[in-house]
Amino acid sequence: MEFLWISPMRIQVTRMLLLLLAAALMCHKGVEGRKARILDTFEYSAISCRHHSASITDFGGVGDGKTSNTKAFKDAIENLSQYASDGGSQLFVPAGKWLTGSFSLISHFTLYLHKDAVLLASQDVNEWPVLKALPSYGRGRDAAAGRFQSLIFGTNLTDVIVTGDNGTIDGQGAFWWQQFHKGKLKYTRPYLIEIMFSDNIQISNLTLLNSPSWNVHPVYSSNILVQGITIIAPVTSPNTDGINPDSCTNTRIEDCYIVSGDDCVAVKSGWDEYGIAFGMPTKQLVIRRLTCISPYSATIALGSEMSGGIQDVRAEDITAINTESGVRIKTAVGRGGYVKDIYVRRVTMHTMKWAFWMTGNYGSHADKGYDPNALPVIEGINYRDMVADNVSMAARLEGISGDAFKGICISNVTIGLSAKHKKVPWTCADIEGTTYGVTPTPCELLPDQGTEKTCDFPEESLPIDQVEFQKCSYRMSYM
């Protein structure tokens, strides 16, 4: 009888292979009745990184687009609040469609959306709490009563971040637009993101779709960064403003693309007597690398609610396409307040109704209690280094009788008129200023002084430009 000799090494390898095969079979049987674990790793830049993380799925979240996750978001954020003084926390929203009503954020907190995550705004009105009207407005914008809380809301916070890998927040606004047009709303429509009375805010790298009304509304806040936001709504949708800094200090808006039914960026500070009494201006605002499409509104609007004042706005490297006006100042008798020290440069405009529009006759009022003697001060408006084509009218500049808009400076601007342009490219009344190297020839109230001078633009940076980002990285494992 012959014996086959097998080496001890070969026996050991065979045993290992059998053990691995058995383990694989056991694992296969074990996962038949449950979901496999999913691993997500991601990195992003932020003003703060967090020490603690959780997924919305850890709190019963279901991303099927049908199940309400309002309670899951509230439970998750309440649980994570325990880490506010221990390095902060982050809530991760993985791929899926997450239906939810309004929920509130906390301090030292990050909400992070996966690139394939979609927050779907609930159309159940019961999932939207009602808040009092903002004190600087005195009433809601849609109705005299209060307002529905925004989808993502926060107040009296510090160090709060809403970001992602270009994840999506869909406001499903058609429901709200229809109610608005039918006059059936008892309260003002909700916004997508509103942060108020807060400090150190970052909103970045998100896509916002079909907001019921305004998209991003920081109000009564400071040190705000809004970056890399894409905002899209039908150009006929009502009041779907893009980004509205409102009574805010030290704000930076950059690298945003906005298509909407209203102003792409609307700078505000309260309405009539309520804004005057509240007295909180918007100041130290930077807007750069903005692309806007809004056929019925403005690329950048200052007002019309500006009763607390607007000062030191710096906008540069702006592109406007098929937009009603480039830069618009809106105010009225009764507003009070001021718009001053405005600097805009390097703007390209394609297919516009007006390149520039200023009006002191924007007469919408909060109520009949406004002071007819409260006249706004408009001065120190500087536009330079701009080019436009296919424009119906170069400018419509209308101040207030007895309250002229002063210190208007426009330099190095070339406006190409459309084939069906207005016969008079400039209309001017109750304004004072000068121009340098502007085509077509401006109105008599803005005499051209040649090309040797240029309008001002501050070269020193604002404090918000000194903010440094950290590189944050996370490894999330969830069911």
UniProtKB/TrEMBL annotation:
One of its GO terms (biological process) is carbohydrate metabolic process. Its main location: secreted. It is found in: Secreted, Cell wall. The keyword Signal applies. The keyword Hydrolase applies. Residues 1-33 form the signal peptide. InterPro entries: GH28_Enzymes, Glyco_hydro_28, PbH1, Pectin_lyas_fold, Pectin_lyase_fold/virulence. It comes from the Eukaryota. Transmembrane segments: none annotated. One of its GO terms (molecular function) is polygalacturonase activity. SMART domains: PbH1. Pfam families: Glyco_hydro_28. Coiled coil: none annotated. SUPFAM superfamilies: Pectin lyase-like (SSF51126). Keywords: Cell wall, Glycosidase, Hydrolase, Secreted, Signal. Belongs to the glycosyl hydrolase 28 family. This is Pectate lyase superfamily protein domain-containing protein. It comes from Turnera subulata.
